[in-house]
Each structure stands twice: as structure tokens, then as C-alpha cells.
Amino acid sequence: MISGYVECGKIELARNFFDAMPQRNNVSWITMISGYSKSGNINLARELFYQIGERDLHMYNAMITCYSRNSRPKEAIELFNQMLSLDVDIQPDEMTLASILSACSQLGDLRFGTWLESYMRKIGIEMDDHLATALMDLYAKCGSIDKAYELFHGLREKDLVAYTTMILGFGINGKPINAINLFEEMVDAHIRPNLITYTGILTAYNHAGLVEQGYRCFMSMMENGIVPSADHYAIMVDLLGRAGRLEEAYKLIKGMPILPHAEVWGALLLACKLHCNVEFGEIAAQNCFDLEPETTAYYSLLANIYADVGRWDDAKMLRKKVMEKGMAKIPGSSWVESS
DNA sequence: GTAGGGTTAG
């Protein structure tokens, strides 16, 4: 019952059912924690986790995974260390290590990562494809792209996540051509790219400055029934904009079936700065101001465009605005971590 | 009685 509710996203119903249960076994606690994890509710997951009297490996795994997949790598590693400590002393398994490796690459902590690799050997955890993929991601994020590719090459079965990880890895390591080649290999292998894969491949086309090919890829994405997110549009606007095709970029934004976020307009604004275009620059900037009034970078960009074309008074006025906004931040609580 | 934990972006 709980898992059924969790699967269709009815987490409150699952909780009601859970609360009404006279006796809760391990599985029900784990189902509830992973349900909160999937819906991004770290606090409720943690609350439940610490209500458990006797915690086993699977419960630790559920909570560590919750931290890791919700971008709390430090807390994931903290709990992992707690698990290894003498007063808990539970030996991790493949599942634990996959989540911890992910936390590690989120932090870009290669030293802890290589320690984990030898630790795995020490306690006899065999490197399966999931673990190799997580390790691949770590190496790629830390700049060891050759080591990442070695691991990729050694996979028993290259699946969607493996290809996507490697494509993203080539992308962040400045190897767009390798990313593009791998994407083609993936399509040939009949593995269907998802939204994340397209983020990687479109970024690669962008970095390689391959406008036509990138545009074609974006179109084929939609033909394959994958609906681009605002992030994908932002990449496309950047690609077209950097090539000086500002009007096309603008039209792409206007034709979006979803609301463009500030990053989309910001990409156009940046392109307008590169090409000293006031016309679209003003439109892009106005949208950025409306969407994110507190981000001063947008005001500066427009000010720089004005300066480029000799409109000093307009530039000055905007720079004054930036100063005022900067000052206004000081008495506030902008340095308090938001969560 | 039944239900569970892994890897990819932002």
C-alpha cells in the first residue's frame, strides 16, 4: 500500500497509512524514507530515520541515498562515516558505495574517491557497472577524463546512464567532438537519449560552436518525443546568440511552449553584449530584471552594451542602480544560507 | 499478509 502511494506521488496518503499501521517492519520504514527522498523532502526523511530504534544496512542506504540524490553530499558522507564508526559498525554494500561515490563527485573530492576505491577492494565489494559508472563520473568531474573513459570502456553493458555520464564528462573536459561521437555511437546502439543526455550533447555542440548540427540535434530531440526544458532552450539561445544569430535566438524564446526562466533571457543578453546589440539586449535585459530583480549581473551587462555603443548616460544610470542594489544587500541576511 | 536501498543535469 505504501509503495503504491509513493509510486504515484501521493506521499501524504502513504504517510497516513504508515502512521495507522499497528506494526511497522523494516520495509515500511524504508519505503517511507525513500518516498520522502524521491519527493525531495529531506527533513521528513531524516525525522523518520532518527525515529527508528534499531537501524540496519538498508535503512542507512535509504537515508544516504536521500542525501546524495538531493544534493547534500556532505551529509551523505557524514552518515556514511557514522555507519562505519565503532558504535554503529555496519559494513556498507554496493548500494551504499554507489551513493557515496555520487556524493564524492558532487564534491569533486578525488582523494576520498580513490580511498573509497581501495576500501571497496579491501572489504571485497566487486565493481559492478553501477559502481563503475559512479566512479567514472567522479573521475570525469575531477578532470581525469582518460581514466573515466577507461572505466567506460570496461563496462559489461553500456546503458543510458553510462553513455550520458561519459558524454557529460567529455563536455566538461572540453572535448565536444568526443561527446558528439559518443552520442552517435549511443544512437547506433539503439539506446534512447533522455533529457539529461540532451543537456550534455547540446552543451557539447555549443562548446564546439557547431550551430547547424546543434540545431538539428535540438529538432531531433523533439521529433523523438522528448520535450525540451527551459535549460535546453537556454543552451540553444546561447548557441545561436554566440554565432550572432540574435533574431533567431529571440524568435526561439518567443516560440517556447513553456515560460522562459532568467537563464534563457540571460543567454540572449550575453550574446547581445558579445555582438553589441542594443535592440535585443534591452528586451532580454528587461525580462531578466522582471524575473530576477536582485541579480545585479544583468544590469551590468546591459550597462556594458550601452557603453559599447557610446550611450554613456544610460550606462551610468544602470551602474548607479547596481551600486544601490549592492548597498541594499548589506543590512539584509543575504549571507545566511538558504535551504 | 504486503511493502525496500544504487549510477547521469540544473
TrEMBL record:
Entry GO MF terms: RNA binding
Classification via SUPFAM superfamilies: TPR-like
PROSITE patterns documented for this protein: PPR
Keyword Repeat: yes
Each PPR repeat, start to end: 25-55, 56-90, 159-193, 194-228
Gene3D superfamilies: Tetratricopeptide repeat domain (1.25.40.10)
Family matches, as InterPro entries: E_motif (IPR046848), PPR_At4g14850-like_plant (IPR046960), PPR_rpt (IPR002885), TPR-like_helical_dom_sf (IPR011990)
GO BP term (any one): RNA modification
Keyword Repeat: yes
UniProtKB keywords: Repeat
Organism superkingdom: Eukaryota
Protein's name according to its UniProt entry: Pentatricopeptide repeat
